[in-house]
Give the backbone structure.
Amino acid sequence: MTQVLKPIKRVAISTGGGDAPGLNAVIRAAVLSGLKRGWEMYGIRDGFHGMLSPEQYPEGGIIRLTRDRVRGITHQGGTIIGTSNRNNPMRYPITLPDGRQEEVDRTDEIVRAFALHQLDALITVGGDGSLAIGNVLSQKGLRVIAVPKTIDNDLDKTDVTFGFDSAVAFAVDGIDRLHSTAASHGRVMVVEVMGRYAGWIALEAGIAGSADIILIPEIPYDITKVLEKVKEREAAGRFFTIVVVAEGAKPVGGNVSVVEKEAGRAERLGGVGEKVSAEIMELTGKETRLVVLGHLLRGGTPTAFDRLIALRFGAAAIRALAEGQSGVMIALDPPYVKYVPISEAIGKMKQVPLDSDILQTAKDMGISFCEPD
Ligand code: F6P
């Protein structure tokens, strides 16, 4: 952690990666806390895109964030400054004259843009990708504070990320609604949820929503075990089954299901729900229906829990700058927020530990993860 002493006058906020409920709350708390210290607050449009291609924005790629602009946004989903999970400045995709695609590093341009706009500090709000960008920019001399965000809850060094609670709450509501229709028709209902390579959303929503089967990336599944569970339930007079499947779940010896891989961005997961429901239908002979919750998990109003974490993180980012911190990420270590070096938080995905009591709770209650024998 570096101590930087130059006085701060202008601070820019960037929100990057997939949006998550609570981003606007971070922006509001950071802007109000910064204004209170007499600082000018700015927002970079669409991750860092506004800085790299300002001509594409009628108002310019960097907008002034006033008290008026952040009024009434705590409860709003999305981000008022926009976000992007493409065009990562560390691996920016360009098309060569011969049509080939290449990735180039444009982080120096960001450092120059900060100097041009006389911006003294950056608050980068995002997942692993945005934190890695923040880390590089901090190594290149910018004063950077990172705020962790993702519905996936897969970031290390923080107890939880905001957006996760809202995603789980929405998924549980969806699963609750599926129970009655599944029971009425005696069907298998498969619910696919996001989460990338971590099973947090599937696990917590599955337990809270009383699923019978949960498939997560941390435990490769044996599809024939679904049949066992369905039969076991039928023997007990239960003719429907609810299966929650994480988008990153994979069969034993198999791979994750990928929709696409585009230059300059992470691979997009999806399709496992379709695969699993087709296999279940074939194995059990039961009518099976699939619901992919997908981006619904990222939309809508943040829960009170997420709002509060987001507001705390936004205010803490400004306090960290005022204290002369740089290169650190705000983390939740209940009941406190603390600072951890960004370099320690990146590159390590936080998956569900196999000895987690949450996992054990599910198993104790008879929920199947379809583990092979
Ligand atoms: O990281 C958040 C997340 O919603 C993941 O759960 C999901 O795999 C990914 O983003 C989807 O990204 P996109 O916005 O490109 O569809």
Summary: Residues 18, 85, 127, 150-152, 194-196, 247, 268-269, 298 surround 6-O-phosphono-beta-D-fructofuranose (CB under 6 Å). The CA atoms of residues 119 and 331 lie 24 Å apart. The radius of gyration is 22 Å.
